[in-house]
Amino acid sequence: VHSSSALVANAFHYWRARGLYVEIARALRIPSTGIAGMRFEAKHPIHDRFLISPNLDVVFDYQPSSVCKAVAVESKFNEPYGGWEKKGLKPVYLDHAEFWPDLPNLHEIARQASPDNARYVHLDAPQLIKHTLGLKAAYGKRGFRLVYLHYDVPGSQGVRHAEEVDEFARCLERDGVPFQSLTYQDVIWSLARNQGDRHREFVDYLTERYL
Q1: Is residue 114 classed as helix, strand or coil in its secondary structure?
Q2: pLDDT reported for residue 205
Q3: Residue 120 φ then ψ, to 5°
């Protein structure tokens, strides 16, 4: 019940199976026109030297004529609040000088998160850094958007996590990388407001399970 992978499947598969990309895209506040498809567990290689590429939970692919070629969603459920093993960024990523000339602010975070992620308590910044590098290699710095979709919680951990997300978002904004964050609560409330009549049974399931 605490699996973020299960949460992703529960929230997204319904819309993907029916080709209802516009409906879920609007709830996510991402471009809803020109969507060509939706993929789970998508990989974007960073460099030939790295044999394993990190999995992105969901990727929306767009038509070739679209300015934005892909919107990638990294999903978190309980991981920021103690449900994940805190790992740093391997120094090998810093060895590749070609990754960083147009990402100076992200480079600084990468240095502070390698070999140990000492800068962030709740945010898995090394994972987001790797996703950014892989998406940039695939689509160019302005050809994608990275969405950090997380489950919000009350209390000090939720506040600290939100602060860390905001700091990371400002870093990518300064580097010119399209990035946004929102909560599962925001998405589910949006679906309840806008899709509750046409898809009542499923929306009721989401609200009863996760709100």
Answers
A1: coil
A2: 96
A3: -115, 140
* Confidence at residue 28, expressed as pLDDT on a 0 to 100 scale: 98
Label each residue of 6-73 as H, E or C.
HHHHHHHHHHHHCCCHHHHHHHHCCCCCCEEEEEEEEECCCCCCCCCCCEEEEEEEECCCCCCCEEEE
pLDDT surpasses 70 at 119: yes
Q: What are the phi and psi torsion angles at 149 (to 5°)? A: -105, 120
Average pLDDT over residues 112-140: 95
> Long-range contacts made by residues 186-190, C-beta under 8 angstroms, separation at least 24?
187/11, 187/27, 187/28, 187/149, 188/11, 190/26, 190/27
Pairing of β 35-43 and β 55-62: antiparallel
Could you tell me the sign of the dihedral formed by the alpha carbons of 171, 177, 178, 183, in that order?
A: negative
Give the span between the Cα atoms of 91 and 93, in whole angstroms.
5
Beta carbons of 147 and 72 less than 8 angstroms apart: yes
Please report how many Cα atoms fall inside a 13 Å half-sphere around the Cα of residue 130, on the Cβ side.
23
Cβ pair 130, 164 in contact under 8 A: no
Distances (CA, A) of 161 to 80, 150, 154, 181: 7, 10, 11, 12
